Amino acid sequence: MANSSQNIVEDETSQEKTLSIYNLIMDGGLGGQIIIALLVVLLVVALYIYFERFFTIKAASKTDSNFMNKIRDYVIHGKLDAAKVLCAQVNSPASRLIEKGITRIGKPLADIHTAIENAGRLEIYKLEKNVSVLATIAGAAPMIGFLGTVIGMIVAIHEIANAGGQIDIKMLSDGLYTAMTTTVAGLVVGIISYVQYNHLVVRTNKVVYEMEAKSVEFLDLLNEPI
């Protein structure tokens, strides 16, 4: 009989130690739930921006190794319309820069270079669209989580002040749950957003480098004696 009672106590103890994420959020009080909900929204926004930009940049990074050779042949033989058609078919940031340069052939080289630079800035702006939002989320999410920590500690201190010197851990649980769960959630969202942001920056830089390389190659082509 004593052994069965001991087993019941041990089972109750093990059950009390098991706590799901859902319970942590629901036991964190209204303030903690609001902050967790805000962090979830930020995480969804960050994931959407990341995957939308990732596939856009991936599509922009696809290049035809024979593209510039074809452009060279068309330009040398004066087939500028065919070169424009090829650029439109490839439809990449680099090809759009080359197409801009082709439309300026016959003008001074400085004007062609300026036109390509301006078009390049526009292409970079398109590639970096909304990426700065990821950086903002990466910085804001931990601070929002820390705000939940402060709110949770205020709640805990308030409960202590109202306890009349008799501190009950159960009374403090809501504030402590809010403090811990919001901190963890804020850090998780911040870390994910930070990694996503840096990955997109690296991918974007590769596309920009490709644009610059092809632009220089095109300008060198125009400088070649015919």
Automatic annotation (TrEMBL):
Q: Which domain of life is it from?
A: Bacteria
Subcellular location(s) per record: Cell membrane; Membrane
Where this protein primarily resides, as one coarse class? Answer: membrane
Which processes are annotated in GO (biological process)?
Answer: protein import
Under the heading PANTHER family, the entry gives: PROTEIN TOLQ, TOLQ-RELATED
Write out the similarity annotation.
Belongs to the exbB/tolQ family.
Protein name listed in UniProt: Biopolymer transporter ExbB
